[in-house]
Amino acid sequence: MVLSASHKPKVSLHLSDPSRSFYSSGDKLSGSVQLQAAQPCRLSGLRVSAAGCAHVQHRKNRSQEVEYLKYEEELRLEELLEKDGCFLLPAGKSFSFQFGFELPPPGHLVSSYKGKFGYIRYYVRAELDRPSHHALHCEQEFEVEEPLDVNRPELLAPAACSKQKKVTCMFIPDGQVSISAKIDRKGFCEGEEISVNAKFENTCSRIVVPKAAIVAKHSYVADGHTKVSVQKLAAVRGNHIISGMCDMWQGKTIRVPRLRPSLLGCDIIRVDYALMIYLHIPGSEKLVLELPLVIGTVPFSAVGSRTSSMSSGAGSLGSQGGSVSSWSSFPSAPPSYSNIHRDLRVRTPLLLDYDGAEDDEEDGGLVMKAPERFYAPPPAYREVDDAANKPENVS
Hints:
The protein has 395 residues and is mainly β. The protein has helices at residues 153-156, 305-319, 386-389; strands spanning 10-15, 28-36, 41-43, 45-59, 62-74, 87-89, 94-102, 113-114, 118-130, 133-141, 159-169, 172-183, 187-188, 193-202, 209-222, 225-237, 245-255, 269-280, 287-295, 346-351, 366-370. Strands 4, 5, 8, 9 and 10 form a five-stranded antiparallel β-sheet that branches. A five-stranded mixed β-sheet has the order 13-19-18-15-16, with no helix packed on it. Its main location: cytoplasm.
């Protein structure tokens, strides 16, 4: 039988559960390979392989890869076996061949990822060999997401930090600013709110603005060189703090937006998160402190977590700075000058409040707010002639 080489057989690969969004370590991945030909053709073998690797490339001559998954299986084609040792695929019929394998156990896989300088990719490939012809390939990608439980003891422990900075003007000392901040735990999931306790002090002559933001740091390593990309994802801001005043955040919240989980187990790609709390100082560099965050996939459970969080945080606060060790003893925050006569304030442009962030669109500049003064009306009076009312002397 003469076979036409111009008509290639069709090869398609299908996973058993196409609606499944991701797999995790230890899961069973299965599917089928379907073959169909318009004309009869000879085959010499059918293989299914699976692979997963992390790849980083800074430039053309600087790249690195780490392999996390490798699997190969030869599918049996006996039902199509011919006498000459090749397999004959008849025309007009469709054949399906099943495959399946188990992903490596926990600790051997990392989550899928795609970034600016690298990716972590997993795929299944079917390869059909034909005598005297090039092999035919068919490929199907699948996502891997490793579970990350934020209820681990180390992620339930609070995080606290203090920082201060001396401010100068033309090399002349101009006071200082300081930040003390604390969050109750480090582990969060998408949609949860981070409660921030912070104290800001300003003894310099300028008006400063407290702000906070969730930032992501993507690190890529190739041939011993590291590239880092930083993104600001969500931000909040506080009231302006004038010279000689302080402000406090007591449970100010910032919501965790939709984020991919922290990527911690890969050797060449890493995604870390942090809560950045900072003071914008006009004419000077910002005072910045960062509290570590871990974005997980298993949400926080208050059952049994409160006790471990409180006990694990008791010792850590003392070692991270005495100024933030007794948050419960902080007095209530004083009223902010920015809230006085908000409807009747006089807005006078003073300094441009710009730090390259997206959270500065509200005011368009730092303003000095002067409350309107109300004076009491003068007391009622009348003219009285004391001489007229004085009784005459009786002689």
